[in-house]
Amino acid sequence: MFSYYLKLAFKSIKRNPILSLLMVTAIALGIGASMTTITVNYLMSADPIPQKSHQLFYVQVDSWDPHNAFSDDSDDNNPPPTQLTWTDATNLMSAKKANKQTAMAKSGGIIEPKGLDSKPFEASIRLTFADFFSMFDVPFLYGSGWDQQSDDKRDLVVVLSKNINDKVFGGENSIGKDFVMAGKNFRVVGVMNNWQPVPKFYDIQNGAFDEPEEVYMPFYLKEELELPNWGNTNCWKSPEGEGFKAFLRSECINFQMWVELPDLKAKADYLAFLDNYVAEQKSLGRFPRPLNNRLSDVMTWLDEQKVVEQDARLMLWLSFMFLLVCLLNTIGLLLAKFTGKAAEIGLRRAVGATKAELFKQHIIEAGCIGLLGGIAGLGLAVLGLQGIKSLYGDYVNNLSSLDGTMVVVALLLAVVSSVLAGVYPTWRACNIAPASQLKSQ
Amino acid sequence: MLKMTDVKKVFRTDLVETHALRDFNLHVKEGDFVAVTGPSGSGKTTFLNIAGLLETFDGGRFELDGQDVSDLNDKQRSQLRNQKIGFIFQSFNLIPDLNLFDNVDVPLRYRGFNAAERKKRIEHSLDMVGLAQRMKHLPSQLSGGQQQRVAIARALAGEPRFLLADEPTGNLDTQMANSVMDLLKEINANGTTIIMVTHDAALAKQAKRNIYVLDGKVSEVGKSATANHAHLAAVQ
Questions:
Q1: CA of B53 to nearest chain A CA: how many angstroms apart?
Q2: Best mutation target, A351, A357, A432, to test chain B (most B CBs within 10 A)
Q3: Which residues have C-beta within 8 Å of that of residue A345, sequence separation ≥ 6?
Q4: Residues A204 and A301 sit within 8 Å (Cβ to Cβ)
Q5: What separation, in Å, do the N-terminal and C-terminal C-alpha atoms of chain A show?
Q6: Most buried of A141, A397, B92, B234 (most Cβ within 10 A)?
Q7: CB–CB contact A354 B75 (8 Å)
Q8: What is the mean pLDDT of residues A132-147?
Q9: Residue of A347, A432, A437 to mutate when probing chain B, most B C-beta within 10 A
């Protein structure tokens, strides 16, 4: 009977093309608006590294002003600073107390490609440690990351993003080749494949939805080459003295740190280590605030820092309200449509259709209208996402594409909501007294 | 076959109680062709709706094919309609966007027949009414008389025990009405019991048996319609 009801549904849709078009449009508008905001929220709140997000922890220690707590986006009224000082980042890295660990910072420099026609250009740098690549499951096209010795010896080695390798080396295997950046000659040890975690969880302080950096090099080269600070830098007191070295010694925060801890015990041990570290620093006259260290796994960290903006959530609810209004309209239109079919319903009842059979027939018709509305709504969602791109530019590029899951969600949402919208009109239709309709056609 | 004993039907609104049928008694035997006449508002259609299980009744007893139908639920009534009763209406009640084949298919779909069985029955019943060549036509492409023939084919396809016809020729000219009437007589001759409500005395005369309904009661029952002519003439 299902295929029979499908056939009847499409005949009925064709019978009242304008009424059907109005219903499909109403559902399409609701689905289009909802899917646009759902997609943005879904991509914003997705787990960027699901296979190990519960083993990766962001490190925070409270080195802030004794008189004023740090202020960030979280609801916490006494949060520790969201980044580390150079001193703490390097100390914690030297201790090597976690399975894997990486401090990091954002920087940038000028690349000087070889070849007469190529012009120098600026690119972003992630200063980090060897563990970065294995901790975050970075995919490689050629080669791999550097080893820990290169970290300690401050070797001039780089890992390039695919884009930069395409731009500087024409996409060929550049392992072992020279690469000039910030006036220094580096050796390429790895070329990453496309890698774009959304959100860019490892450094949400500098744009949670930004592109990953273009060049990766050992962290200590920051000091060696006096590479500039890119991204957020906050200080609760001025550096003591002038110059780059004074900044590194200061209480200014510009560095992030992640550790990989396999289980709860490892986490507890690392937290105890942090507490001991802070106690030791207190004895040296630092860390004037009460003990306030944190280890947050990826999703907790993204949640606390409100990576999904409040206004994005508000838009989501508003778009659901809009969908509801569209569905209420659809209910009205379905009532009109099914009332127009009273004579047919009366006839079907007379020749033996049970109420259950008629209910199935009409709910399938509502579902078909929903499916058509869903398909049209997907088109509108694509337009909506394009609109968001054109409004906000590259910033939202990573947030405005529909993937397979979203397509399925859109169609399901459309069908389920129109079936729900169809319940009352269908129930009314099934309860039409057949005798009242058969005389009046 | 169809036996109504003291059947009552009351339509109630906040202000008025209308007794559509009062102590309605009728016994229709297998193979009968009964014409039901009576003035407008006399209860003919209410009787037909109750006989066709399209409406419930408020008192009395109604047996259809030996089965007491008083306590059947909606689903059981639907199944009984589907299996035992064929309907023919004044305005044909064909579904406009289904072709003849699909229109005749409607009751068979609810019967649970497989596709081959349905096809066989549809072709046979359309053949019986002389429209086998026009199966793919839409109702709007046919004359009124042809449309009523399709409705008859639809009623026959399920091989019902009863045909209930409500003014089956009311929308047709005399020639078409006679042709439809001839078809009904042929169907009756083949063994199907027919109950036909009509205003048309000439048609009623052609039935095997006439009953005259007045004020919700069977006021006269006769083998011939002649006696009722005087009544009809007086009322009209």
A1: 8
A2: A351
A3: A338, A358, A429, A430, A432, A434, A437
A4: yes
A5: 26
A6: B92
A7: yes
A8: 95
A9: A347
* pLDDT computed for residue B231 by the predictor: 44
Beta carbons within 8 Å of B210's beta carbon, 6+ residues apart: B34, B35, B36, B37, B204, B220, B221, B222, B223, B224, B225, B227, B228
Q: Which residues of B touch A (CB under 8 A)?
A: 45, 49, 52, 54-55, 74-75, 78-79, 81-83, 87, 89-93, 95-98, 106-107, 109-111, 154, 158, 166
Please give the C-alpha separations between residue A123 and each of A187, A230, A397, in angstroms, as whole numbers: 17, 11, 19
User: Does B227 have pLDDT greater than 50?
Assistant: no
CA angle B56-B57-B61, nearest 5°? 115
Backbone angle region of A328, left / alpha / beta, with phi > 0 → left and psi within -120 to 50 → alpha: alpha
> What is the β-pairing status of strands B17-28 and A294-297?
unpaired
Q: Name the band, by pLDDT with cuts 50, 70 and 90, for residue A439.
A: low
Parse chain A into domains and list their residue ranges.
2-45+309-438, 56-304
Out of A12, A350, A355, name the one closest to residue B52 (CB): A350
CA distance A345 to B186: 30
Q: Which residues pair with A255 in a beta bridge?
A: A84
Report pLDDT digits (tens) over B112-138.
889 999 999 999 989 988 888 898 999
CATH number, span B2-235: 3.40.50.300
Interface pTM (ipTM) of the complex? 0.88
Tokens of B18: 């209308």
Q: No. of H helices and E strands in chain A?
A: 15, 11
Q: What integer best gives the mean pLDDT of chain A?
A: 89
- Cα A352 to its chain centre, rounded Å, is 55
Residue boundaries of the structural domains of chain B: 2-235
Average pLDDT value over all residues in chain B:
86
pLDDT of residue A272: 96
Other C-beta atoms closer than 10 Å to the C-beta of B98 total 18
What global pTM score does this model have?
A: 0.68
A312-335: b (≥16 Cβ within 10 Å) or e: beebbeebbebbeebbebbbebbb
Looking at the predicted structure, is the pLDDT value of residue B222 above 70? no
pLDDT category at B233 given cuts 50, 70, 90 is very low
